[in-house]
Amino acid sequence: MKNKEQLFLDSNDSLPKKRTRIKLSGTTKYTDYKIISFKKDTTYIDTTLTILKEYNYNFLRKDNFELLAFHNQGQTFNQLGYQFNNPTWLPNIGMQAKHFYYLETKDINYYEVPTPTTEILYRTGIEQGQVLETLFTLNFSKRFNAGIAYKGLRSLGNYRNSLTSHGNFRTVFSYNTKNKRYFLKGHLSSQDLFNTESGGLTSASLANFIADDSNFTDRGRLDVNLEGTDTKLEGKRFYFEHNYKLFSSKDSIQKQFTNLKIGHVFTNELKLYEFNQTTINTDFFGSTSASADVSEKVENRFIHNQLFLEFNSRYVLGTFRVQSNITNYSYGYNAVLNTNTTVITDPKLKGSAVSFGADWKATIKNFQLTTEAHISPGTGRLSGSTFYSQAKYQKDSLFTAKGSISLNSKSPNFNTILFQSAYDKYNWQNNNFKNTNTRNIHVGMDTKWLQASADITNIENYTYFDMDSKPQQAAENITYLKIKASNEFTVGKFALNNTFLFQKASTGSAVFKVPSFVTRNTLYYSSFLFKGNPLFLQTGITFKYFSKYNANALDPLLNEFRLQNTTEIGYPTVDFFINAQIRRTRIYFKIENVTSDYTEKNYFSAPNYPYRDFTIRFGLVWNWFI
After folding, report:
1. Is 143 exposed, middle or buried (0-12, 13-18, 19+ CB in 10 A)?
2. What are phi and psi of 412, to 5 degrees?
3. Distance CA 273, CA 135 (A)
């Protein structure tokens, strides 16, 4: 490889967003190392160190500003904010508390690299644990890329029965023929997300925690509600998309149409959720006829085929695609699990649906227009529709404005329709549930000085879990306003990065609960050190606060959040960090919840689940290019 020194910051770089300069040598450019998203947006492998990298350095690998983490890495998150401007038309298996770490089809990236490329992330866990994520990708030729990645986590946690053990494996490939008329891409993924479930602290332990009893500074001495209980979400998926250009650029017919393609998309995905318990607990979950171990499994399979025709035309000002889809689904159990109840008439939901859709992408001077529509007619579980349209105006690299509207109608998740358990109250079959209808208007702007957005969302037939963990549909519509803004002030080598969120449910607030205000403010210092600038240092303090609200409680059997009206949470946290970059290696050192030893013990992730105490974490991200 000719350029062994590519992809690191130039010494003159002061780290403003979108203006990073890269020092290169040889013939390879940093723009040759491409990351291609599911929607075919292209970014580049970035080995720089910025404040955004600090926010993204977590197990999710993305900014979790609107999420409230539980104390152990790999546990779930409570919601501090919601997004409704990315609609889908297919219902999911449910168990949403498990899905934060599950990689869906849209989360898988593809690559194009001139030389073999590797990335390794390492991060310490909480009490006897660590995270390791590896990616290796290479192009066997300019037209054929393959990659393999694995993310593994095992972390014991400070509290009893809070072990997490996760594995996410995926392999990706893409291929283009020499004449570029045939294209193929796809991936295989296998994921298992395992957690032991504590049910939170008991009433006595909760009182000891809040009182800051010195006998319980070792959190492992605090009693929890559940023993011998664990859950697991497994998923296996095979996905591929291929298309063929019916007319190449040399064909005379392209006076009317260019790049006319016919294509096919295939997805086969199986998800399996398990709840296992060796110690029956009727005080926590209610009555049951089970006298021995509880082992419950529910399975969900989707097989999806799509045929599409895509073309460019001067008459449509861009690219237009029409599609037809055939989807088969099967969700449920092999038999009725609980004979104490008679509410289950059929332990399995299954069926198929035919649907149609179209999407259009165009660029007109400084405007980029995108419209997507999909409809699944009929009365089955997959009946519904989506419509999304966005207009984006970009004057230059310093100013962007956009607006979008989305309309979505789809069935609630399957576990709200049908669920079974050995515990009596966790059995239902809601065949009368209606589609949830969501309407969202989004506007946003991105300038050199400010990034801001506003959303107004209306939700009809909002589906939730009540205080008894039973699924319900709201009688009134939810009206949700969300305003978010962020900016950064820089003075010399110091910077203050701020993100503010204001939100309010003007109707339906009894079942749709969010904190009114969330803020994150980071004061940090950035500079190169030593002669020749071999090390770039970034250090600072992050303050985060959210106002008090009746946060949803976690139900560990369902792995869903339910309503509760007895406990308010809302508090500030302070984190201190020192990050450094040496060539293509970023090193991260962080002290979380610095002030926890001196403040009131009121920090919780959900009722009965304390947030983490004073914790020291470190790790690194290392890229190399052979």
Report:
1. middle
2. -60, 160
3. 27
User: How far apart (Å, rounded) are the C-alpha atoms in residues 172 and 160?
Assistant: 38
Strand blocks (E) in 177-251: 182-196, 229-245
Name 610's bridge partners: 604
How far apart (Å, rounded) are the C-alpha atoms in residues 63 and 50? 13
How confident is the model at residue 17, as a pLDDT? 44
Q: Could you tell me if residue 443 is inside a domain? A: yes
C-alpha to C-alpha distance for 358 and 362, rounded to whole angstroms? 14
H/E segment holding residue 519 = strand 517-529
First-residue to last-residue Cα distance in the chain: 6
For the ranges 7-11, 127-131, 184-188, 468-472, which has the lowest average pLDDT? 7-11
pTM: predicted TM-score of the whole model, two decimal places: 0.91
On the question of pLDDT at 402 being above 80, the answer is: yes
CB atoms within 10 A of CB 531: 6
Distance CA 386, CA 91 (A): 13
d(C-alpha 506, C-alpha 32), whole Å: 48
Distance between CA atoms of 50 and 21, rounded to whole angstroms? 12
CA distance 262 to 324: 12
Confidence bin at 83 (pLDDT 50/70/90): very high
Q: CATH code at 599?
A: 2.40.170.20
Burial zone of 597 (CB within 10 Å; 0-12 exposed, 13-18 middle, 19+ buried): exposed
Strands (DSSP E) contained in 42-116 are: 42-44, 67-69, 77-79, 110-112
Tokens of 204: 């006595």
Per the structure, the complete domain to which residue 126 belongs is given by: 8-76+88-625
Say if 583 falls within a structural domain: yes
CA distance linking residue 613 with residue 158, whole number of Å: 9
The Cα 601–Cα 209 span in angstroms is 7
Is 412 or 31 the better-scoring residue by pLDDT? 412
Q: What is the pLDDT of residue 443?
A: 97
Per-residue pLDDT of 250-280, as tens digits, reads 544 444 456 789 999 999 999 999 999 999 9
pLDDT, tens only, 477-531: 999 999 999 999 999 999 999 999 999 999 999 999 999 999 999 999 999 998 8
> Per the domain annotation, does 82 fall within a domain?
no
- Please tell me the total number of residues recorded for the chain in this structure: 626
- Looking at the structure of the chain, the number of domains it has is 1
Strands 130-141 and 615-625 come out as unpaired
Residue 372 in any domain: the answer is yes
Greatest Cα pair distance in the chain = 83
CA distance 526 to 541: 12
Helix/strand/coil (H, E, C) string of 132-187?
Answer: EEEEEEEEEECCEEEEEEEEEEEECCCCCCCCEEEEEEEEEEEEECCCCCEEEEEE
Q: Each residue of 189-220: pLDDT tens digit?
A: 999 999 999 999 999 999 999 999 999 999 99
